[in-house]
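Appendix C reproduces, verbatim, an entry submitted by the partner laboratory led by Prof. M.T., so that reviewers can inspect both the input and the predicted structure.
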Amino acid sequence: MADRSLLRDPRTWVGPGLAVGAGLAWYAADSLRHRREGAFGYELVEGVDADSPDFMRAAEALTGHPINEGCEVELLINGDQIFPAMLETIRSAEETLCLETYVYWRGDIASDIAEAVCERARAGVECRLLVDAVGGAKITDGLIDEMQDCGVDVRRFRPPKLYALRHLANRTHRRLLIADGRVGMTGGVGIAGEWEGDARGPDEWRDTHVRVRGPVVRGMQGAFAEHWLEATGEVLGGERFLPELEALADGGPVQLIRSGAGVGDTNAEAIHYLAIASAQRSLDICSAYFAPRPAFTRALAEAAQRGVEVRIVVPGPYIDKEFVRQAGRAAYGELLDAGVRIFEYQPTMLHAKTMAVDGVWATVGTMNFDNRSFQLNDEITLAVSSERFCEALVASFDADVERSEEMDAEKWRRRGPVQRARQLATTAIRREI
């Protein structure tokens, strides 16, 4: 029989009780970030057209980030276009240069970027480099030493610590380059040899990036400053970082949307759902890692069922994370049955993250269509309201479709037990993908 005196003595149960309570609170708080796992979705109360002021106001209100008029956006496809523009932007810096990246690995371009940044530092430009401590783990140590010796302030973002293991998955997935607070770049490309070239084969990854001028660059500088503050305690302000930026005569409305991990719905989720639910004619999504939650699978299916031509391009046989591909394939059946067209890119790893709605509104950034981007990582995307920009982005999307294999609904239903088992096996880890 149990000793009742132990139950009467608070010292015997208060400690364990507090530990259990803390554990339940931790689980509950974490679960709130993933409420769509319980099949809770979204509903658009009133429809808005993507080319209407109502859509822009909704995007602004949902995310808390302003629409900036008078901005110019240059679309860049693959390393052969992206890296020359990146090096040109670095070399144009006269006072400040800020670079943030999830991936900084190895290869000729890794050395070229380091050399260009060092040259600017030696010329007196204040250069800051922020590399994610996990994503950039493969960077050559010699490159960091070289840059620091030249006066570049190099920091690693959120290095793993024992007391913060719960947040190990909360990385900066952002890619940012800002010169003098006036010219900015973002998109999917990482600084590594894998991105060099023009997607001609497996060794040349396919990606999309943009270079931006105009008032929205202030938001890009702010996104960098936010993380620099966390990493260093330094607040970046003043004319050298945040100059007056006038609207450009030929520019249009652009919005920079930041998203970060937290309890509840993130900006990444909000802007994706708003775009999907608002689409009336066409919806083109390109995602390196496509593993939608049930709420987003349904949203995509509902868009196709109301007559929207929904096309999705994802990686095919060349992907660096096969388990993500299998997790995404678990949603194929419902999507294909609803009329969504899915294409798997064949030549190489597809790493771009873009979306185009009705040929009038588009995004290019770092957000993938998976839970890691929607709930765990710090991300950014540039939203452009422009028929001309959309036309160029959709033309690039069409070129990707031509190099892809379209999934057939009937053939997919007849897939074998091994393939089905692969998708089923991702269920337990899908939340962390």
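The chain is about 40% helix and 20% strand. Additional entries are available on request from the coordinating office.
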